From TrEMBL:
Similarity-based family: Belongs to the histone deacetylase family.
Species of the source: Rufibacter roseus
Keywords noted in UniProt: Hydrolase
Sequence ranges assigned to domain Histone deacetylase in this UniProt record: 24-289
Protein name listed in UniProt: Histone deacetylase
Record Gene3D superfamilies: Histone deacetylase domain
InterPro entries: HDAC_classIV, HDACs, His_deacetylse_dom, His_deacetylse_dom_sf, Ureohydrolase_dom_sf
Entry keyword annotation includes Hydrolase: yes
PANTHER family xref list: HISTONE DEACETYLASE 12 (PTHR10625:SF19), HISTONE DEACETYLASE HDAC1-RELATED (PTHR10625)
Record keyword Hydrolase present: yes
């Protein structure tokens, strides 16, 4: 059974003025239920991570200061959100969602988090709407428990997974692959194990050609026994923060390439939704919904 991490706190704990693009956390489950892609049994309420789990990845001093709401105004500005206890609690719950979804993926072949994909969180700081890094925490959790030996991070958000790259810079058991807009945020890029910077305006055909060029080779080279998929839909031409030109069909085909490759190779996959900032909320929800439809189609 497909297991999906979701909580009403994903949407309701956000500060005023930041809720429009994040309405997807409320609308996406409703859409999936309405169309019959999932039932209520597919959703699970995540448990917040403990401090001990969080500092497996994040610096203890940073976590203490974040939890105590002691970040400087400059640090807060870089996260993009006004800092509050509710926001930190929300982030910790999202982290738990991905860690627990990773466990379900080992059991069922695939699992998902309605939120997550917080790839701009570094060991010791947050950036770009990310306070903690759920992909890094999920990967470290599986490695620490010796449930996997080699992880591949497939990050296809329009923005580079800079935080994830920094966290695993010296960790050979995690291979970080980021295919992103070369001229987009962040201005300073970190070094992933493989970075594929994309030109502005790249279309479906050009994007998918590059993905097909790199991903099969990585599966053979890295030989992962687990994949974390950051499936941000800010690659769409309609996205306000992206500079690419993918259609809904192209974004769906991107997801199919990743998910089908995991299925055919027998590699469990945990997907986090990542970014999506189109002008119309319907474009965001539809693109994310395609990812869930494909997982149901391919794995269940």
């Amino acid at each position: 059974m497909l297991k999906i991490a979701w909580s009403k706190e994903y949407a309701h704990s956000l500060p005023e003025g930041h809720r429009f693009p994040m309405l997807k956390y409320e609308l996406l489950p409703e859409q999936l239920l309405y169309e019959g892609t999932v039932t209520s049994e597919n959703f699970f309420q995540p448990e917040p991570l403990t401090s001990a789990q969080i500092v497996r990845v994040h610096d203890q001093v940073y976590w203490r200061r974040l939890r105590a709401l002691e970040l400087t105004p400059s640090e807060i500005r870089k996260t993009g959100f006004p800092l509050s206890a509710e926001l930190v609690d929300r982030e910790v719950m999202i982290m738990g969602g991905t860690v627990q979804a990773a466990e379900f993926a080992l059991e069922f072949g695939a699992a998902m988090n309605i939120a997550g994909g917080t790839h701009h969180a570094f060991t010791n700081r947050g950036e770009g709407f990310c306070l903690l890094n759920d992909i890094a925490l999920g990967a470290q959790h599986l490695l620490d428990l010796q449930k996997v030996k080699q992880v591949l991070v497939v990050d296809l958000d329009v923005h580079q997974g800079n935080g994830t790259a920094q966290i695993f810079e010296h960790e050979p058991r995690v291979f970080t692959f980021s295919m992103h807009g070369g001229n987009n945020y962040p201005l300073h890029k970190e070094t992933s194990d493989l970075d594929v910077p994309l030109p502005d305006g790249i279309d479906d055909a050009g994007y998918l050609k590059l993905l097909q060029q790199h991903l099969p080779r990585l599966m053979d080279q890295v030989q992962p026994d687990f994949v974390f998929f950051q499936s941000g839909v800010d690659v769409l031409a309609t996205d306000k923060l992206g500079k690419l030109s993918l259609t809904h069909a192209g974004c769906r085909e991107r997801d199919y390439v990743v998910l089908d490759m995991c299925r055919r190779n027998g590699v469990p996959v945990c997907a986090s939704m990542g970014g999506g900032y189109s002008v119309r909320i319907a474009d965001i929800v539809e693109a994310h919904a395609n990812t869930f439809r494909l997982v149901q189609q391919l794995f269940f």
